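Priority: medium. Attachment 1 of 2:
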């Protein structure tokens, strides 16, 4: 199987659903799945006001709805608020509008309760209480399926708001639930970002410890081992304000200090403008409020750079090594952090294609 396709299948929610269904379908009595199907068939064929009729006409087949209910409800062994499950169910059934997704998901969950799960009413709200639990092996596998890692091949170019990035997984070009739309986007900007090859920075991985305490360290090590020494690519998408974000959790361009230092450009080059690296070193040392010329002068006045005093010692060490390599003519994959000036106007210029605004705030 294609390596990239294997990764997407392994980490996606669709694969999560398949794992859950494989685990529990043999244990769930046939009468439960039948009762779910009967309830859904009755729900979708009922007589409603026109706007609801139009909304329900978009539902997929009953078997797909039943499968999604089982997978979503049993994806966690604890009871959870109905709002979150209803939203996830609605989006999984193909509703892009958040209100329609929540309405439809909540209606389906309300008419299907009693066999697979109970609905618990309390002063704090309404919660779904699963009646079945996954075995420990399936639960462990699901823990690694929450985030798609970077791609091991160049992502597909974005050509529409739902067509681009991954080979198999289909997601909106706009991040966030309920934010999808079909208005034109700046596909070329994302496609350019997606063409950049990255690699794991060996000195950072060898000499420093992952400082993200919220991350599953076993999953992190597994992803790093899979990508170690290889080029990989990030899928990029916009948020609703037009800001671009790289996709991924264990590896991500927009991470904490350790996560940023862990990434280097796969295609190394010799940096000839050393002032840029001097500015980056000053930034990591906490001198980022100075003008660029003042940061260069600050660097030139340093007789000894003590990274233990830096605001960002890991990135500072990496920048200093890049500076020393560049002075010797050695190619580096170090990425320099450069300030954005008038970033709001820059984003507006990019989205609107206004060259006058872009030139004014460059």
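Attachment 2 of 2:
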């Amino acid at each position: 199987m294609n390596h990239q396709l294997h990764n997407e299948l392994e980490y996606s929610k669709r694969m999560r659903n398949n794992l859950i269904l494989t685990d529990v379908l043999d244990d769930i009595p046939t009468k439960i799945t039948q009762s779910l199907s009967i309830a859904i068939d009755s729900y979708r064929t009922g007589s409603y006001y026109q706007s609801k009729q139009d909304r329900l006409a978009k539902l997929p087949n009953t078997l797909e709805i039943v499968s999604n209910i089982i997978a979503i409800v049993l994806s966690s062994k604890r009871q959870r608020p109905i709002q979150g499950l209803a939203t996830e169910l609605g989006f999984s059934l193909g509703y892009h509008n958040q209100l329609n997704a929540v309405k439809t998901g909540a209606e389906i969950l309300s008419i299907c309760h009693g066999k697979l799960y109970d609905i618990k009413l309390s002063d704090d709200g309404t919660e779904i209480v699963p009646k079945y639990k996954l075995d420990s092996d399936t639960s462990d596998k699901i823990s690694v399926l929450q985030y798609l890692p970077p791609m091991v091949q160049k992502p597909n170019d974005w050509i529409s708001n739902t067509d681009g990035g991954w080979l198999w997984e289909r997601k909106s070009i706009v991040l966030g639930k309920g934010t999808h739309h079909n208005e034109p986007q700046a596909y070329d900007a994302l496609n350019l970002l997606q063409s950049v090859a990255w690699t794991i920075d060996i000195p950072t991985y060898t000499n420093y410890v992952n400082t993200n305490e919220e991350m599953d360290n076993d999953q992190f090590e597994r992803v790093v081992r899979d990508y170690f020494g290889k080029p990989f690519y990030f899928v990029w998408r916009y948020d609703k304000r037009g800001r671009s974000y790289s996709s991924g959790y264990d590896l991500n361009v927009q991470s904490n200090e350790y996560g940023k230092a862990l990434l280097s450009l796969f295609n190394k080059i010799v940096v000839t403008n050393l002032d840029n690296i001097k500015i980056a070193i000053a930034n990591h040392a906490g001198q980022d409020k100075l003008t660029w010329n003042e940061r260069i002068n600050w660097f030139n006045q340093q007789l000894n750079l003590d990274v233990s005093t830096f605001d960002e010692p890991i990135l500072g060490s990496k920048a200093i090594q890049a500076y020393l390599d560049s002075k010797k003519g050695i190619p580096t994959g170090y990425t320099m952090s450069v300030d954005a000036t008038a970033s709001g106007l820059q984003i507006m210029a990019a989205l609107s294609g206004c060259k006058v605004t872009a030139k004014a705030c460059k």
